[in-house]
Design brief:
Layout: E1 3-11, E2 14-24, E3 27-30, H1 38-51, E4 59-63, H2 68-78, E5 82-85, E6 97-102, E7 109-114, H3 116-122, E8 126-134, H4 138-149, E9 153-163, E10 173-174, E11 177-178, E12 181-182
Parallel strand pairs: 4-5, 4-8, 8-9, 9-10, 9-11
Antiparallel strand pairs: 1-2, 2-3, 3-12, 6-7
């Protein structure tokens, strides 16, 4: 996979150029990488906090890895705890719950893992699922499956951006939408 061109975007009052990643000869996606972009993470967390103001929830849930800074910042701004669904098992995780997803960027299956400690944190709680970009919905589906296994209630899906079919993501609380780029 290679990058070809870029897509200009204004999000949370900030301008960015998103590189276009070629997934196949006729399909490119705009890549939002918030890792290391503290200014953007803070602006997005502030804007999403405002959009969540009327939502009753207890815990923020995200998947490893790119959306972790957003979940952390949102946690700081809302005083709500957060948990990270990991992609590999570590011995300190106890008896985990897991679900499979399919990554749009790698095209390969991934496992999401909820460790034992975080199961106790979310059981019986209202949770908000947070991702940087929701594109195919595979990660979201895996996160929802884990929340069901953990006996948590999902009350909102939140993302900086949605991608692809905008109508499909009408219920997602987001700050913007980007198209798929087809040649």
């Amino acid at each position: 996979m290679t990058f070809h061109g870029s897509h200009p975007l204004e999000i949370a009052g900030l301008k960015r150029e998103l590189p276009l990643l070629e997934l196949s000869p006729d399909l490119r996606i705009a890549v939002l990488n918030i890792l290391g972009d503290t200014e953007l993470v803070e602006a997005c967390a502030t804007a999403l906090k405002d959009k969540l103001a009327e939502t009753d929830y207890d815990v923020i849930i995200t998947a490893e890895a790119k959306s972790i800074p957003l979940a952390y910042a949102l946690s700081v701004h809302t005083s709500k705890p957060y948990a990270v669904l990991r992609k590999s098992y570590k011995a300190y995780m106890g008896v985990p719950l897991s679900a499979e997803t399919l990554s749009i960027t790698t095209g390969k299956p991934q496992t999401l893992i909820l460790d034992e400690k975080d199961q106790a944190l979310i059981k019986g709680k209202k949770v908000v699922l947070v991702d940087d970009v929701i594109s195919t919905g595979s990660t979201l589906k895996g996160m929802r499956e884990l929340m069901q296994k953990a006996k948590a209630e999902v009350v909102a899906d939140v993302a900086i951006l949605t991608e692809g079919d905008q109508e499909k993501w009408a219920d997602v609380i987001s700050l913007g939408h980007i198209p798929l780029f087809r040649d």
